[in-house]
Amino acid sequence: MVSETIITSAQFKKLSGIVYKESGIVLNKKKYNLLAARLAKRMRLKKISSVSDYIQLISNNKDEFVEFIDATTTNHTYFFRENKHCEYILHAMDGKKPLKIWCAASSSGEEAFSIAVQLLANSFSFTIYASDISDSMLNLGKKAIYPVERVKNVPLSILHTYFQKGKNKWKNHVKLKPQVQQYVRFEKFNLLSDTPFDTFDIIFCRNVMIYFDTETRQRVVSSLCSALNPGGYFFVGMSESLNGLDHGLTTVLPSGYKKK
Ligand SMILES: C[S@@+](CC[C@H](N)C(=O)[O-])C[C@H]1O[C@@H](n2cnc3c(N)ncnc32)[C@H](O)[C@@H]1O
Hints:
Blueprint: H1 9-23, H2 32-46, H3 51-60, H4 62-71, H5 84-92, E1 99-103, H6 110-121, E2 126-132, H7 135-143, E3 145-147, H8 156-162, E4 163-165, E5 173-176, H9 178-181, E6 184-188, E7 200-205, H10 214-226, E8 228-236, E9 250-253, E10 256-258
Parallel strand pairs: 1-2, 1-7, 2-6, 7-8
Antiparallel strand pairs: 3-5, 4-5, 8-10, 9-10
Helix pairs in contact: 3-4
Bound molecules: S-adenosylmethionine.
């Protein structure tokens, strides 16, 4: 049975090596069950019963390779997560000058839309570029439809102004209004291998570097810092920090940094 997929240690090494090379995500032995479960799902969908056949498939088939990498990502997120960073921007930045913001591991879009609704509520001028390695998450962000549990931290006034309630089969969902969606552009960007094509006033790269080793973190931070405008802000997740990395930024609040 595929649901009881056994991965030999040689296969685990091969698969985790593929994931590391493509995304920087480290799958150590503790992640065996996670990889087995996600692999089983892909194998079930592709009607493949042997792990070695699946490894063969991803070596030859680009589409399935992309699906496999997507399946190994952890996409947990919710609205108004670690909102201190956004509150900081609201008081530290000038709302009149148009701000270019990048959410550089945006998952399904909750982070980008949380920032967008607060900036709109405070009459800021801005655009947000939301990127991720996962096509399935980017597609969810483009739809901008979320189960109601995801918005439980959203203040009611913001919920009423910027979200619409679903009806009938969507009654347990909300959708961002088009007036908010127009500020957020979703596009694929692999932090490990893509080169930033623009510069930004604020970059959020939160709750992704926990999946990387120090070498990858350094690479990602150097790349993102090069895309940060002078005086710009850089935010990582609250359980992450830039300790031990070369960056030249100044700490302004926990997990929040400023470029000179
Ligand atoms: C846990 S989510 C964080 C979402 C959001 N930033 C937050 O803090 O709530 C981590 C995201 O990082 C993405 N990710 C992992 N490796 C990546 C890479 N190499 N390039 C871009 N995104 C990556 C995953 O697909 C996932 O959606």
